[in-house]
Model the fold of this input.
Amino acid sequence: MILNLLSFLVTTFAGGTEPTGTSIQSVFDPSLPITMQATLQGEDGRTWTLDLHRHSVRADNYRVLEQQRDGSFIEVEPGPVNTYRGILAGQPNTRVVAAVVGDQLVGGFEDHDGRWWIEEDDFGGQVLRHESEVEPCKGTCGVDDLPIFSDEELQDGFEETPDLPSGFLGGLLDECELACDMDYEFYQDYGGNSESKINSDINNVNGFNYEPEVNVTHSITTIIVRSNASDPYTTTNAGGLLDQVRSHWLGNQQGVQRDLVQMFSGRNLDGGTIGVAYLDAICSTNNGYGLCESGFSTSCQTDLISHELGHNWGCNHINDGNTMNSSLTCSNNFSTSSRNTIQNTAATSGCIGSAVPDAGACCFTTGFCTSLDESGCENSGGFFFGLGEACPADQGTCEIPEPEGACCFPNGTCSVVEISDCANGGGQFRGVDSSCFGVDCLAGACCFGADACTTANEVQCNAAGGAFQDAGSACASVDCTPPIGACCINGACAQLEQIICLAASGTFSGIGVDCSSVSCEQPCPEDIDNSGAVDFNDILSLLAAWGPCGACSEDIDNNGTVDFADLLGVLAAYGDC
Done:
C-alpha cells in the first residue's frame, strides 16, 4: 500500500472581526507549587476559581538540549514543571487543563456550558472565550504538492509490531514518547519561555483531545532549544522544512529516544500553510516527523498540533468539521473514524507503552482523582489507594479516608479509631497507624526535678515523689523545669512559683521570666506599707527605721541611711499615690 505524506495544512486567519470573549486577568502563585488555586477575574465582574495540581507531560528521562553556535549541543537544566490539571472550585464534574507561561495562565476548562479557552488577545492581555466564540481558520489542503514515499522507503525504520487483534486497547493511557524541536524563529518569539510554551501546548493536546478521546498521552523525552541563528533549517516551504527536520534528526539525533518528533516553527510558512506531517508514521524513526507554525490562539494551536499528530497516528482528512478536517476548524474534537484509527494504531504499535505502569487511584482533598504511581501521588499531596485501584466514575467525588490510630479514652481504655472519633470521644490520639499493643492510657511523664523524667501513671508518680504531668504526655515533649518566674514583693524580686508569689502578696511576671528582665521598683516608694496612700503610718515606719539600714524600704533615696531627706520625701508625697 502506498502511504502518503501528510497534507499541508493551509490556513489563514480572517481579519477585521469583532473581538469576542471576556477580558480577564489571571491571578496565581508564580512559584509553581504542587497544588494551587488560580483565579480568573473578568472585567465584567465574574470570577472563576481553578483548583489545580501539578501534572507533568515530561517523560522520566526528560532533558533539554541547547544548540551552540558551532552546531554542537549541551544539556541544560530543565525549567520547573509548569503544567497543571484540575477542576473548577466547588464543581466536581469539570475539568481544567492549564499551564503558566511567562506571567500568564493559559489553557482552558470544561463545565456544564461546554469548553472555555484562556487565550491571549490582540493587545497582549487575556480573554476567556467560549468554544462557540472561536473563529475557525480558513484555508485549503496542499496534499497534492507533497512527494510520495515508496513501500520500501516507508517500511525502513519501522519497529516490528506485534500481531494483536484489531481494536485491542490498553487499560491505562497509551504513551507515545515525543521529542520536540524548534527553529530559531520560534525561540525569538518565546525566548526563555520556549520550553514552557512547548510543555503547555502538549499539555493542552493531551488534556483536551488525546487523553479523554482516545486514551493516548504524549510524553516529552527531549526538547532541543535553538537559541541562535545557526539552526539547520533554511526554508519557509513547509514540505522542504519537514524534509530538513527529517534529515537533521536522522543524521544527528539518532540517540534521542522518541516515537515521534514534533517541530515548532516561528516562521511564516509559504502560501498560508501552517502545518505538515508524515502519514501513518508511529514507531518509524525514518518517517515519524511533523511540524506546526506557532503564534495562534490557544484553541487553534491545540487543534493544529492535534491534527498533525493525528496524521502521524494514521488519520486521513475527514471533512466533517472536526480536528482532522482538511482546513483547520479549531474544534478540538476527533470524529469517530479518527478515534478508531488512533486507538487501533496505539494497540498494534510495538513502540507504544503505558504512561504510568504502576498506577492507581490518587485522590486529592478537592475530590479530584487521577491515576499516578505511589510516589508521584504522595509527592503531589494526594492519597494513594493502591495499585490498580480505579478512580470514581464521577470526577470530583473522590474522598480521602480518615487516618486511624490508637486512641486513649478518658476511662483509660484504648481503641484503634479514626482521628475524628477519637476527638469526639474526648480521647488522646497516639499517632496515625499506631497500635494499642502495650499502651497504658493512664501513663504519662513523671518529672523528678528539672533533669529527670520517667513514664508512670499518676498514682505511681505521686508515690515516688514526682510531679505527674498528664496522661498521655511523653518525657520527650514535656519541660520538667519547675514553673517558677520573677516575683516582685515590696520592691524586691525573687524566683518563685506563682502560687507562692501570690500568697506573699507579690506580683508574678510569668513562668520562665527572670528577675534580671523585670523591674520591681514601686511606682510610689514613699508608700512604705503599700496601703495605696502615703499617710501617718508611713511616717511612723520611717522614724522607726531612722539611721543606717543597708537596703530597706524606708530608705526612700537609697543612700543606705534613713534620714531627713527621706522624711521630706514622704511629706512631699503625702496623700493618695
